């Protein structure tokens, strides 16, 4: 993470919103940046290793920044011209930001938001993220079918993202050996040493 760069992005987005106050996606961008930046303090531990969402101390999230992000999203919606890609991503981030825990997150709403995002800005990453939300909302079996479809299409080939998610889903289904293999593959593809170690630790823990 690069906090200084993120802060500069937020500053510039706010300036842009001041120049284009009637443009919904500008406010959507401000909302997205504010909400994502609000969680930085909890996303790494004292050694710099990444902390997954399920393990983050939500008390460390910046509540003032979350509120600013939600207000920017409300300004976007108030313009009444529909949500674009930035606003939809901000709405997803807002679902996480207001939830007291992973379990209490409105995963059904996140699935719907990802479906909307996939219609206006389709990409394999969006579909993979939708699969993660589906797994939380309805279970890993349905999500695994989505991920397997992406794999059969050759989506995200060479990226650690797909085998990482697939490994998590297989682990939840009790298919331990397959899960370990997928997580090990994901680790071999990860470009970041910290992410690689997290994946290897997950594989070893199965």
Provide structural commentary:
The protein has 206 residues and is an all-alpha fold. It folds into 2 domains: 1-105, no CATH class; 127-206, Alpha Horseshoe (Serine Threonine Protein Phosphatase 5, Tetratricopeptide repeat), CATH 1.25.40. It contains 10 helices and no strands. Helix 4 runs antiparallel to helix 5. The chain is globular. The mean pLDDT is 96.
Distance between the termini: 28 Å
Order of helices and strands: HHHHHHHHHH
Tell me about the biggest sheet? Answer: none
| Strand composition percent | under 5%
Q: What value does the Rg take, in angstroms?
A: 18 Å
Number of strands: 0
Please report the number of helical segments.
10
Provide mean pLDDT, rounded. Answer: 96
Structural class: mainly alpha
What general outline do the C-alpha atoms trace? globular
* Overall tally of domains: 2
Low-confidence stretches: none
Helix proportion: 55-70%
Architecture blueprint of SSEs:
Layout: H1 3-19, H2 24-37, H3 63-78, H4 85-98, H5 107-120, H6 124-138, H7 140-152, H8 161-172, H9 176-189, H10 193-205
Helix pairs in contact: 1-2, 2-3, 2-4, 3-4, 4-5, 5-6, 6-7, 6-8, 7-8, 8-9, 9-10
InterPro entries: DUF6596
Domain DUF6596: 2-75
Pfam families: DUF6596
